[in-house]
Amino acid sequence: MMSLLDSLQKDMVAAMKAKDKNRLKTVRMLKAAVQNEQISVGHDLTPDEEVGVLSRELKQRKDSLEESKAAGRDDSVQELEGEIAVVQGYMPAQLSADDVRAVVEETIKAVGATSKADFGKVMGAVMPKLKGKADGKLINATVKELLG
User: What CATH number did the domain enclosing 128 receive?
Assistant: First the structure.
C-alpha cells in the first residue's frame, strides 16, 4: 500500500502537469505538514498518525472557512472550499451520523457513563475509535445529546 507521502508526491506531480495551481498548493501544504510531523516524531508516520495530520489540516481549513464566511470574504471562501475538498480526498471514509451515534452509545455503555459529568470519560474513550472517521463537532454533539 502506498504511504500518504507517496500519494501526495504522485498527486503533486500530476497537479503540476495539469497546471492545477490550487490543487498543487494544497497538496504541497499537506506534504509539508506530513514531513514536519515525521521530523517531530522522528519516524515514518503510522496510518493513524497520518490521519491525525490530515484531521488537523482539515479542521484548520474548516475554522478558517467559518471566519471567512462571517467576514463576507467570498474569494477566500471559494479557495478554502477547494482546499477542504482536496484534504477530504485523502481522509478515510467518513462515518454517517447514525454510525457515530452507534459507536457513542456503545462507548457510553462500556465506560458506564450515566450523566453529563461523565462527558470527559466518554470523549476520551470514543475519540480514538472515531479519529479521522467523523467530524469532532458531530462526535461532541452526539455525546452531549446522549448523556443529557
Answer: 1.10.10.410
Phi, psi of 91 (to 5 degrees): -80, 155
What is the average pLDDT value for the chain, to the nearest integer? 93
Q: What span, in angstroms and rounded, lies between the C-alpha atoms of 17 and 19?
A: 5
DSSP secondary structure of 22-84: HHHHHHHHHHHHHHHHHHHHTSPPPHHHHHHHHHHHHHHHHHHHHHHHHHT-HHHHHHHHHHH
3-class secondary structure, 17: helix
Is the distance from CB of 128 to CB of 48 less than 8 angstroms? no
Measured between alpha carbons, how far is 11 from 7 in angstroms, rounded to an integer?
6
pLDDT in tens, 26-35: 999 999 999 9
Nine cell digits for residue 44: 515514518
Domain that holds residue 118: 97-147
Residues 36 and 109 in one domain: no
Per-position b or e across 50-61, b if 16+ CB within 10 A of its CB: bbebbbebbeeb
